[in-house]
Amino acid sequence: MLDEDVIAAPKATHSPQQAPRTKQIMPQQSPTSLSVFEQTYWQIAPVDSACLPSIDERINHKTKPLGALGQLEDLARQLAQIQYPAPEGSQPIEINRPVMLVFAADHGIAAHSISIAPPEVTQQMVLNFINGGAAINCFSETLGWTMKVIDAGMLSPIDETARASAGDMLIEQSIGSGTADFSKQAAMSQDQVEQALLMGAKIATEQIEQGSNVLAFGEMGIGNTSSASALLSLICGLSPERTTGKGTGISDEQLANKVQLITDALARVEQTHGTKAFTPQTALAEVGGFEIAQIIGAMLATAKAGKSILVDGFIVSVAALIATRIAPRAQDYMLFAHCSAEHAHQQVLAQLDARPLLSLGLRLGEGTGAALALPLLQAAASFYNDMASFESAGVTV
């Protein structure tokens, strides 16, 4: 049986055979040579609870019964605490340049037909993003998101013509031409895992430097629910039957094959490492995805900068879970957008003790659930900033 929350040091893994497009970019370590898998590397400060009395006073004196705005009050409280630690808890909440970062990559496991679409669809959907035709484009345009698409490691790069038309919307920071088939070998090397975290951190930092204080993360990659399910099994000690679902709508036969492939992968990992080595570093190298690892790095960098992280569905929530296993304080900065129709997503949310804002039966990915939650953040900020108090309105209760 897989163990939960184990911390023994992992043994070396075998590097997968990568296609020629693999880049050998060595991780840039800090001057003290801390590992990116140590929480001290990220230097994430906890939010300061000393400001909560002034935040609560502001919320409770609005012209409404106590708690009448329900979860919006909790959301405003968290946003205010993230943005204005003591003694500035009475200052307004700001939602500045919200940015949606959609990371795309391919997965070797997809060769087993465990999705409704072939691997080529990853690149095709990225082209759709660039051309503005996807659901996430529609929601981003309507709701005011700045949207970026990141090639984290697709099988085939975007051609020069499409790159030119995309302008600064497309960011290329590919680790390689997709991961290896994790049912047979490690998905990526340890160096590639570190590269991915650092690259994700880089893009988040760049967006924050441009004025963003709310960052959301989406993903695109045929086969990435299999990777997320395998990661959840390794990190939490759960069986593949509990962590694996139908994703975008596969058949019962495909689901059985998906469960078996993940079972085979877990057996391979246990044979290589034993049952007490399933740290984030080991799990990501063995069964992870380039886009998932880059999202983890981006989340950690966002928390380090003291900005809000808006967490999407199953795959992004698995990334959030792993980020908190690396640096637990990162969760202080996480807002959970929705509970998806992927049944294992509820288990991830339970692991994080998270209360999502929405439950719409979504199972698309792309960051769509996170995009739809932005108006709730804006509404929370609006009542916190502008709603009258009983005293200012002259209302006596």
UniProtKB/TrEMBL annotation:
Enzyme Commission code(s) on record: 2.4.2.21
Pathway as given in its UniProt record: Nucleoside biosynthesis; alpha-ribazole biosynthesis; alpha-ribazole from 5,6-dimethylbenzimidazole: step 1/2
GO MF annotation: an example: nicotinate-nucleotide-dimethylbenzimidazole phosphoribosyltransferase activity
Region (Disordered): 1-24
Pfam families: DBI_PRT (PF02277)
GO biological process: cobalamin biosynthetic process
Taxon lineage: Bacteria, Pseudomonadati, Pseudomonadota, Gammaproteobacteria, Alteromonadales
HAMAP family: CobT (MF_00230)
Gene: cobT
Family to which the UniProt record says this protein belongs: Belongs to the CobT family.
Biased composition (Polar residues): 14-24
Reaction catalysis annotation: 5,6-dimethylbenzimidazole + nicotinate beta-D-ribonucleotide = alpha-ribazole 5'-phosphate + nicotinate + H(+)
Species the sequence originates in: Paraglaciecola mesophila
Protein role: Catalyzes the synthesis of alpha-ribazole-5'-phosphate from nicotinate mononucleotide (NAMN) and 5,6-dimethylbenzimidazole (DMB).
Active site (record annotation): 366 (proton acceptor)
Protein name: Nicotinate-nucleotide--dimethylbenzimidazole phosphoribosyltransferase
